[in-house]
Amino acid sequence: RSQARLVIVTFSAMPPRAKKRRKVYMGPDQAYVIPKQTKSNRAARAKRAAELINLSQTSGDGDNSSRCYDLDDSDQSSDSNEDEISNQSSDSNEDEITSGVTSDEQATSDGDNESDDTSEHEELFHDSCTSEDGLASGDTSGSSETGETASSGGGESEQGDPDLTTSGEDESDFKIFEELCSGPPIPGQDSTRGHVLLLILAYVVSAGLSWTQTEGLLRLVNTLFGVFVAPKSKFLFRKVWKQSQQGMVDFHFFCDRCSKPLMVCKTPLQDKKARCSQCKTLYGAEEMVSNGTFFIIFNLRKQCHDLVKNCRKALWDNLEKIAQRSRDIFTDLADGDLVNQARQQFGCAMEDLTASFSTDGSPVFKSSKNSMWPIHVMLNELPPILRWKNLLLGGIWFGKKKPVMSLFLDGFVEQFRRIGAIKWVCHKNGRALESKVYAVCCIADAPARAAVLNRKQFNGYYGCLWCYHKGTLVDGTLKYPYSSSVTERTHRGVLQDVKAAVMTGTTKHGMYGPSPIARLQGFDLVWGIVPDYMHCVLEGVAKQLTELWFTSTGAPFYIGNQMAAVDCRLAMIRPPNLFARATRSVRERALWKAKEWRYWMVYYAMPCLHSILPHHYLAHFTHLCQAVFLLLQKSVHRDDIQAAEGLLARFLQQVSALYGQGAETSNMHLLMHLPKSVMQLGPLWASSMFPFESANGALLRLVTAAKGVPLQVAERWAMKHALARFGEMTNLPANFDQLFRMFLNIQNDSEDGVLGVPQEVSLTAAVHSLLECHFGQVPTLERHLRTRVVGFEIHSREYTRPKKTCTQFVKMRDGTYCEIQAIYKTVRTGEIFLVCKSLILEDFGTGSVKYLHKCIVPPNEENLVLFSSDQIECICVFIELEDESYLCDMPNFYEKE
């Protein structure tokens, strides 16, 4: 203890000049001076690196050996992490970018990317040294890829017009592939190495193989052939789309401390650094990738060009249909008043296009808080099914926190504005077309909508995006009591609110400040945002009411004690084969997907709750079901919108009286905005989140490891893009083409016609009389159990194989509802006729629902009628319960599974 005191006294008595020197930080305006020792160390390291490179070039690897870079290399020293090895002189060591300004020294290259003797496609099959990371891999040893320019303008590196020709960044990839496909055939085969490579690429993409599994597949193929018909390693295999990936991906880096943008650059990322203009922190690109302080923006111009080129026939045909449609009928998103007004405002030609975009977070791992936020883009003028299958990827944000939307959307908006005019050729007349692309619609759930618009969420005052309803506090929670006199927002009003919020530093009518999407030309900040019915209606109101019915013990609408009876009815339902999921117990409703909530609300709930839920509550619920059905139709007339508006008003007026003020949630309030949203942007199905949620799931399936998730997704997306390009330009042999289509689940356009082998024909007296009455003399017939009509498979009552589905009830064009008894095909003409039983229908009898009917199937062979297969209008949902049967119309067939 005394020694300790002595030490303290001695330390305090030390003269000032003997104290330990402290670090002195730079002042705000003080210039940074590199110490001489640091310059000397850097020069020494550069000299050693040059010696090592010269040594490797003379060690027998030749000019075709590749430099290996790894963004996650843990064996590098701390010095090499701070100051990357460079071949530049010591005078140009200060490679920095301050506030996103490009340093000229980063644009200088150390050498030319050339090889002497071996062609590039030979190198693809025989080279042995490449990088583990596809994003950072270099070329041959004769080149230094540190010359890639980092740019604050998005790293735009395309030269010329990429609409008519492929950009120079990925031209070499396709040139190599063309040489492989046109090269000599494999011994004993009529196929080339390019064909084999395409099949392997298709299988890797479809099966989602990891790189280890891919390497095993490559070795297996080469071993079976006995020669190198495929790249010998995964590294060489990933070189196939390397240049294409560099042209597709931009890295956007930002400061971890103050969230300021730093720089935008492409791969490779070695020797690229940036200094934050606010906190003066110096970052290296590889360091920021490791820390996750970056996001990725994809080249939308290139993706749009390729999509329009590949789908030009379907696109032009649909553009002609859109131009001929009535303005009083809304058949798709492109028919909306908002889209037509935007076209008129900018003087758009028929070939000009509009786009919708969406962003939403998806958890990547169950044991981690990390989530991925992609931005998807959809071309609205493509036919619905085609555009849902061909969404473009605009960007990816990955991390434990939600994205900084001001940064993320700013990068996306800048990239979208670079799309410009897409050049393509009409397949009918060969006319050269130029299509401009305008963003008109944003589709997102409630939290994402608030983040995108930089405003309060639904649980804050003025949380509604479409009107100035302030909201009322009920038991500590904000609610939205129904009011028919709420003022709607306008685009100009939102801009004024944003300006007021910026000037005062406080919120104004829920707005925090400006949003980057306001810079999208022609975008409406009110009705350009969709109140998505998937979240608002299905997972919102329908789920909320169902929870109230089964959990509100003691309430007059409580039916939780009859849950077993409801489950029993659900188990009896056999939906059509268009439905992806069979019915599940109400007890498992917490696990129901949005599609199951759609089935429940539109089809199952009313029959299952009939005589169980009190009459006036069920009648109230039918107002919502009928209104949503009208807005979900294949074609919505303005009269349907007015009818739906009245039904929703009646529904909302009674919510408080039936369920209390606590039930007037934001989702309930959004119901009043659905009719106008349909008028602005088409039917509810055309602007729902379903295709985007499906695309999010597809992106998650691209992740095969826990490390470097956004890099994996970026490379796998570039790989899929390269596969599409390779497949488009390659004529495969017949056996290879069949396998290629099987891998990618490409189905030929199914022609209408009978399915399966013919059955024995035995006509009853009633059927014989029916056919004789129609034909005069019964022709030679084939009897079948199934047939395909308008792309949908239907079957007769005789087809007993399916146990959980029922697709034998249809509606004819003349309004007749039928059950198909038998399917016949005439041998001479090939016409298909259906022997049907006409059904007896009655109204449901409760509330406002018109599409649900009580159904009576006549016994024996009564009410037999004969129809041609082309007279079918739609398939119906037949629900047979213990004492009653029901028949439901389907609003549209776009939301099929």
Automatic annotation (TrEMBL):
Residues 54-169 are annotated as: Disordered. Residues 137-151 have a biased composition (Low complexity). Residues 54-67, 99-110 have a biased composition (Polar residues). Signal peptide: none annotated. It comes from Ixodes scapularis. This is Putative enspm-1 aa. Residues 71-85, 111-120 have a biased composition (Acidic residues).
